[in-house]
Amino acid sequence: MRRTTGWAARPRQAVRDGRAWRRCVRWIASYGRIFKTLHILQFIDVDETYRRDIKDIRNLQENRHSLARKICHGKKGELYHRYERGLENQLGALGLVLNCVTLWTTVYLDAAVRQLKAQGYPVREEDMARLSPFVHSHLGVHGTYTFALPELAHGAIRDLRDPDAAEDDEI
Q1: Which of 1, 7, 44, 156 could lock 14 by a disulfide, CB 3.0 to 4.6 Å apart?
Q2: What residues have CB less than 8 Å from 108, skipping those under 6 apart?
Q3: What is the pTM for the complete model shown?
């Protein structure tokens, strides 16, 4: 059996000593910088696709955060709790509502595209790729809401509104 020597054999002494411990911490930090440098080099490399992927992911996250800010409009979108559990509850509820809004938008965007295709409108794939479930101009976050379920068949959704019809307040 091999016996460990040096500060690794005596971690408490290494912490008290400090010098060996600091050397180890500096070595780990330097090791981490290698991967950060490789990432930066890959980012600025001639290959443009990696930068585009990063930009697309960043834009997607910014759109999600923008939707979350619109939903969490009370107290100017800031989270106020003096205790961690309350903050976790508030963030959990915000995440649940955000996911529900995203799902609802996705289902109705898909229905709108299917309806456009059925009516003979040309729907291009490059336009489809630009659709986002994080749009929020259609959301009204102020007011009183009812969550009574409409009478729909299993798996059915409400009819889409006619864009040429007069504006109706009742949804």
Answers
A1: 7
A2: 157, 160
A3: 0.60
Give CA–CA dist 137/128, Å, rounded. Answer: 18
Written as one letter, the residue type at 8 is A
CA distances from 107 to 24, 26, 68, 71, 164 (A): 53, 51, 19, 19, 22
User: What residue has token string 């509502």?
Assistant: 97
Packing angle of the helix pair 19-44, 48-71 (nearest 10 deg): 100
**Blockwise average pLDDT, block size 10, the chain, 171 residues:** 54 61 84 84 74 85 87 66 72 86 91 91 89 84 76 84 68 47
Per the listing, tokens 């910014």 go with: 62
Cα(20)–Cα(117) distance, rounded to whole angstroms?
A: 69
Residues 119 and 162: beta-carbon distance below 8 Å: no
In the structure encoding, which two tokens stand for residue 37, read together? 């440098």
Terminal CA-CA length for the chain: 76
CA-to-CA distance for 68 and 92, rounded, in angstroms?
Answer: 12
